[in-house]
Design brief:
Layout lengths: L19 E5 H15 L4 E5 L6 H9 L4 E4 L2 H9 L4 E7 L3 H10 L4 E6 L2 H9 L5 E6 L13 H11 L4 E7 L10 H24 L7 E3 L5 H7 L4 E2 L9 H4 L14 E12 L2 E4 L14 E2 L6 E5 L4 E4 L9 E5 L3 H5 L4 E6 L2 E7 L8
Parallel strand pairs: 1-16, 2-3, 2-9, 3-4, 4-5, 5-6, 6-7, 7-8, 8-9
Antiparallel strand pairs: 1-10, 10-11, 10-15, 11-14, 12-15, 13-14, 16-17
The structure holds pyridoxal-5'-phosphate.
Pyridoxal-5'-phosphate binds next to loops.
């Protein structure tokens, strides 16, 4: 069941009920523009919708130049297609008959891609006869899904090109671990290693007469390294639109542009138990803490010290009074978004729109 929106269009932000997920439209639009300018047509952008789970945002990313979006789950792809998005890459493996059937059904409604790293799984996908773009996922240093670069890709590529319904999309090489490595130099080195793996794999396929149409990958912490390497044709940044506390802790310097915080959790002080403490109504069910605590926006003297289910503990010499509203910057944007049904879109303090997070909880 979708929860009622915490706000109405035209309200002042102070009137919004809490906890609420706030999207600062000026900062969000600036982030869209910053990415477009940084990449400057040197690679295609396929923005990652796992971050926002919202067709309204996907359509704005496409209007800003993205060729389409990625997502991680078939049910996310369904929500995006239902919301009017026509080009979606499931940048993940889809395993098991139930999911594969739904993927095949969705491929009749939109341009759809999927990743593979296993021959049996690939054969099950091919057996559906679905028209899909299939990408071979390489393991390039993250230690998650994907096959080893080089020879192992060959058997998968042969099987894809042999299929009458599948199209060989190319390679996916995403170095997730590199995204939050703090130093620019270390992040650059991670991507240089991944680029070598991509080139080596392309050479192996070429020797067999199989051309790689496209290489896709990259996130908000490294995408300019992928672009500058020349080994990627398409980048998949997601978090850049929101910019959470964890990403803000990275070292940011050219060639990576700096993005602005655009996503906030609005919280209310619900108790003042002692002189130096305030309790807000946003705990770990309102802001994900897996990558660290939220920060209090614009109030450096206040510290969000810890979270329990429904409560956040704010410390500081002069904590805000009962009833005051605070904007929190989430530690990690993706899992925070998955806690809400609505973006309360605010411009200069006024609620301009409410966008439903239709892929919220879409984990299948
Ligand atoms: C395959 C893939 N591509 C791109 C991204 C986007 O990363 P970010 O949100 O760090 O930009 C992710 C995030 O986990 C991912 O798994």
């Amino acid at each position: 069941m979708t929860q009622r929106p915490p706000a109405a269009v035209g309200q002042r932000i102070e009137e919004v009920d809490t906890p609420a997920l706030i999207l600062d439209l000026d900062a969000f639009e600036k982030n869209l523009d910053t990415l477009t300018r940084a990449v400057a047509g040197r690679a295609r952008v396929r923005a990652h919708a796992k971050t926002h789970k919202c067709p309204e945002i996907a359509k704005r990313q496409i209007a800003a130049g993205a060729v389409g979006v990625c997502c991680q789950k078939v049910s996310e792809a369904e929500a995006l297609v239902e919301g009017g998005v026509r080009d979606v890459l499931v940048s993940n493996e889809v395993v098991g008959p139930a999911k594969i059937e739904r993927l095949a059904a969705l491929s009749r409604r939109a341009q759809l891609g999927v990743c593979v790293d296993n021959l049996d799984n690939l054969r099950q996908i091919a057996a559906t006869g679905a028209r899909l773009d299939v990408y071979i996922e390489l393991e390039v240093g993250m230690g998650r899904c994907g096959i080893a670069p080089g020879e192992p890709a060959l058997a998968l590529a042969r099987e894809i090109v042999r299929s009458s319904s599948l199209r060989f999309g190319g390679l996916q090489a995403y170095h997730g671990r590199a995204q939050h490595v703090r130093s620019m130099a270390e992040r650059r080195a991670c991507i240089a290693g991944a680029a070598d793996a991509v080139r080596a794999t392309k050479r192996v396929l070429e020797k067999e007469g199989i051309a790689t149409p496209l290489v896709t990958g990259a996130g908000s912490g490294t995408f300019m390294f992928e672009v500058e390497s020349g080994a990627w044709d398409e980048i998949q940044p997601g978090s850049y639109i929101f910019m959470d506390v964890d990403y803000a802790r990275n070292e940011w310097a050219a060639p990576l542009p700096r993005f602005q915080h655009a996503l906030f959790v609005l919280a209310t002080v619900m108790s003042r138990p002692s002189a130096g403490a305030a309790i807000v109504d946003a705990g770990l069910k309102a802001s994900s803490v897996d990558s660290g605590m939220p920060t209090v926006w614009g109030k450096e003297a206040l510290r969000y010290a810890k979270a329990s289910d429904e409560h956040g503990f704010i410390e500081g010499r002069e904590p805000p009074p009962l009833g005051e509203k605070l904007l929190l910057v989430p530690g990690h944007c993706d899992p925070t978004v998955n806690l809400y049904d609505w973006y309360v879109c605010v411009r200069r303090g006024i609620v301009e729109a409410l966008w439903p997070i239709t892929a919220r909880g879409a984990l299948l």
